[in-house]
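Risk register update: the risk of archive-format incompatibility is retired. Evidence:
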Amino acid sequence: MTPLLEVRDLKTQFFTREGVVHAVDGISYSLDIGRTLGVVGESGCGKSVHALSIMRLIPNPPGRIVAGQILFEGRDLVSLPEKEMRKIRGNDISMIFQDPMTSLNPVLRIGTQLTEGMRLHLGMGKKEAEARAVELLEAVGLPEPRSRLRDYPHQFSGGMRQRVMIATALACEPKLLIADEPTTALDVTIQAQIIDLLQRLQERFGMSILLITHDLGVVAGLSEDITVMYAGKIVEQAPTAELFANPQHPYTEALLASIPRLDEAGRKRLANIPGLPPDLVEPPPACRFHPRCRYVTEECWTTEPSLEPYDGGPEHLVACWHVRDSREDA
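Archived output:
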């Protein structure tokens, strides 16, 4: 089966006075129809930049996609004219941005922002689009949806604004929904509601979801597969259950060790990752994680590991010279 989305050796760079920032540096993965892929990693690792690259929303200048392909239903989005990309953006591919307060226009009513995409992409009239907007607000659990169409973003709480953003993204029933940190700045109760909402809407609309997050708890509850990014590169990817049970890259292992676990109640201190993420103007040679890795050897300094199947399995890929199992066997 042909994947809905296939990213091939994508490279996105920013050209600044300090030098060229290698924000996304040669990542590849695929996403099948109806599945959810979680992309995780520290702030600044390239998660959001890669999502904006898919939407072709990288500001130019200073940014630019310099290499690679983004195949959506077999069409390369990188080479599409902007006029064709506008037909896909918001229609076949929608995105929930990080901060709903700044993503919603503060001087336009919610109803106007909700119906804009439907009138543009689906050719709906005003009344038809408003009726559809009411249905969407009901679907995302917003109370009194018809009366709220005339409200402005500042009249909603953070969780309600996030629901409005989700409704706006779903207006044209996209085939792919990109959710960039959809639970950031929300309390844990609202986070759980948003995760549950996305699951129910995915089942209802049959869409694929690309979930961008730093929260491993969120990705565990929503994604079938996980891709781990570090310093613009993919260091590990695997089915969710496999990754949590059997992490092989030192960075993935350290991420999982840094979060509380109910099954390890006796542990008093959480692990930390020493050092800081690298400067992507001058990234470290070879393996980018080696300055922070406690298993580093000379090979890690001199030769970059490629993303290869771990233990012969095609679904679990790791870019490391010293996977966990080999360290434990040594």
